[in-house]
Write a structure and sequence with these properties.
The chain is mainly alpha-helical. It has helices at 2-11, 15-19, 66-73, 87-101, 113-124, 129-136, 141-151, 162-182, 187-193; strands at residues 26-27, 39-43, 56-60. The longest helix has 21 residues, at 162-182.
């Protein structure tokens, strides 16, 4: 679940595209006998297939989660899905994670937010418009420009209760160590158990 979540965010992909992907759709560096830290994921039924290529791909080159994703996906058989569950199960875990952090339901964050959040985060990091167009597989710059103008200066973080903001900050700080331990094996469980989040504040 975590691997698909990170893959969607850093490749700026639709979550449904990753839920349909199998190990055979993924090219890791070891598959290509390459030392470049880039992962390619083939999208077989893209939403824009009627206006463009019927088969597309996305790339993941985020150093923060590269080793973790490789450690998870390299163990799968060619015909295994990247996420061994339904879209409903993915959403259930998503809702449970947000509830555990304490993010109120009124903000209406859904798994569809991963693509939007990934695009805005990449733009804020300085990714060029042309690179975003390619990464998001968009054909019209006007569409992307309108989208970024609407979302780049918006964030739910300022509206969150202080205790929840503390939880988000704690998880952000812990993520590198968690992913590093996870890529090495069972030690990740002890790393995760060491986190103590503040109780959720207020009703959703």
């Amino acid at each position: 679940w975590v691997a698909v979540l990170l893959g969607c965010f850093y490749s700026i992909a639709r979550v449904g595209e990753f839920l349909q992907a199998r190990r055979s759709d993924v090219l890791l560096p070891r598959d290509l006998l390459s030392e470049e830290k880039v992962i390619f994921v083939q999208v077989r039924s893209p939403k824009s297939r009627r206006r463009g290529p019927t088969v597309q791909y996305v790339t993941i080159d985020a150093p923060c989660c590269f080793d973790f994703l490789c450690s998870v996906w390299e163990k799968l058989q060619a015909d295994e899905f990247l996420y061994n569950g339904s879209a409903g199960a993915f959403r259930t875990r998503w809702d449970a994670a947000l509830a555990r952090i304490g993010i109120p339901k009124c903000h209406r964050l859904t798994p569809g937010s991963l693509r939007a959040g990934g695009a805005v985060a990449a733009h804020r990091r300085g990714k060029q418009i042309s690179e975003l167009l390619w990464a998001m597989r968009l054909q019209q710059q006007k569409t992307l420009a309108f989208y970024l103008q609407e979302t780049t200066a918006f964030s739910v973080l300022p509206a969150l209760p202080e205790a929840v903001r503390t939880n988000v900050q704690l998880l952000k700080a812990a993520m590198p160590a968690f992913l590093e331990h996870s890529s090495r094996g069972p030690a990740a469980r002890s790393c995760a158990k060491g986190l103590r989040l503040s109780p959720a504040a207020g009703p959703g």
